[in-house]
Specification:
- The protein has 383 residues and is of the alpha/beta class.
- It folds into 2 domains: 2-42 and 279-382, Alpha-Beta Complex (Aspartate Aminotransferase, domain 1); 44-274, Aspartate Aminotransferase, domain 2 (3-Layer(aba) Sandwich), CATH 3.40.640.
- Helices cover 45% and strands 14% of the residues.
- It is built from 15 helices and 12 strands.
- It has helices spanning 2-8, 18-25, 43-50, 52-61, 64-78, 97-109, 123-131, 141-146, 151-155, 175-187, 209-216, 250-257, 263-299, 326-334, 366-382, and strands at residues 30-31, 91-94, 114-119, 135-140, 159-163, 191-195, 220-225, 238-242, 316-320, 338-339, 341-342, 357-361.
- Strands 2-8-7-6-5-3-4 form a 7-stranded mixed beta sheet, with helices on both faces. It has a 3-stranded antiparallel beta sheet with strand order 9-12-11. It has a two-stranded parallel ribbon with strand order 1-10.
- α11 links the parallel β6 (191-195) and β7.
- α4 crosses α13 (263-299).
- The longest helix is centred in the C-terminal third of the chain and has 37 residues, at 263-299.
- The radius of gyration is 20 Å and the shape is globular.
Length: 383
Amino acid sequence: MAQSRVAKVYAGNQENNLTEWEFLALNSELNIADGHARQELTPGQSKIIDELPLLFGEGERRRVEEIERECHRAYLQLLGQHSYPSTPGRVLSCYSSSVAMEILSRALATRMDSVALLHPTFDNIADLLRGNSLRLLPIAEDPLHGGDLDDELLRSVGCVFITTPNNPTGKVVPEERLRRLAEQCAEHDVILALDTSFRGFDTRAHYDHYAVLQSVGCRWAVIEDTGKLWPTLDLKLGMLVFSEDIGLPVSKIYSDILLGVSPMILVLARRFAEDAANGGLDELHRFIGGNRELVRAQLADLPGLTFPDADSKVSVERVHLGDRPGTEVWAALRESNVYALPCRAFHWDKPNEGSNMLRIALARSSEPLARSVQTLRLVLERF
C-alpha cells in the first residue's frame, strides 16, 4: 500500500496536493514539510507522557462526557475563547481538523452550491469543499483585510470560509475585522466559517472569537485543532463548533461519520492544554520564534530571496525564491533527503502565484532544522 502511494505521489508532479507532498517527507529525519508538531517534548510534556498509563485509566474509568467537557474548556480557554458554547452537542470532537472540515463540507452541500474561500490557504479545505460538489469563489487575502466584502459576492454564496491565522501566510483577522465580516454575513444570511487551527501560535488571535460571533448574531461554524501545537505523534483532537441557528444537519452528518474520539485522547489533550496554561504556551512561542530567526538568518543574504510574511507568528515560514522554481528546488533538496513544501497548491485558484515559493515547517528540533536549512542554502546557491 505504501509503495503504491509513493508511486502515485511522483516527485516530478507539481500538481500533487499538499498532503501528497508531505507524505513523501514522513520517513526523513530532515522533514521540514508538514505543519504538524515534531519537535522534542519539553520536560513538562515528558512528564505527561510518563503518565500515559494513568491517563488511560482515567479515560477508562470516568464518564466520557465529563472528560470531553473538561478537555474543551481547558483548550479553548487557554486560547482566550471563554464564550464558546459549552452546552452539550455544540462542540463536536473529531479525530482531526480535516474530519471536522469534511463534516462541515457535507453539511454545507445540503443547503447551498457555492462557497467563498480565502486565497491562498491550505488546499485540503478547497479539495474537501469541491469534493462535496461546492463551487468555490476566491477571496484574495489583502482585499479581505482591507475592507468590506463585495455585496455581489455575498449574494452569490451560502458561506464565507476564512482561515485565521492563515496557513501559510500567518495573517490574523483582527477583532474589529471579524466583527465586520460577521455583520456582512448576517446582513446577507450567509454562514461565516473559520478554520483557527494555528490560533495557538499567535496571541493576536486569542481575542474571544465566539463573543464576537454571538454578539453579531450571524450563523457561524469554527474548526479548532490541537494537532499543530504539541508533539504528540499525531494523537490530536479536532473540534467543530457551530451556532445554534446554523441551519445545517451538522450533528446528523457527524453521527454518520463517527461516534466520538477516544477518551484517552481527550485526557491527553486536556493535560497538554493545562501544561500550556502553566507556561508551556509561552515557551512554545519562544521556541518557534527562535527557529524562525534561525531560518531567516541562514538564508537572508541569498540573491533574490525574500520572506513575504514578515509579521507571521505561526509555525511555518514561506520563502520566496525569486525566479527559482519551487518544484525544481524541492527536487534538488530531495537528493539530500531534505523535504520542504512547494507552495503552488496553496494558491488553489491560481497555482502559478505560488510557483516560486517554499514553505518551511518550524515546529522541529533546532538541530535537524538547522541542517535542513543549511542544505537548502547550498541548493539555492546553485540556482
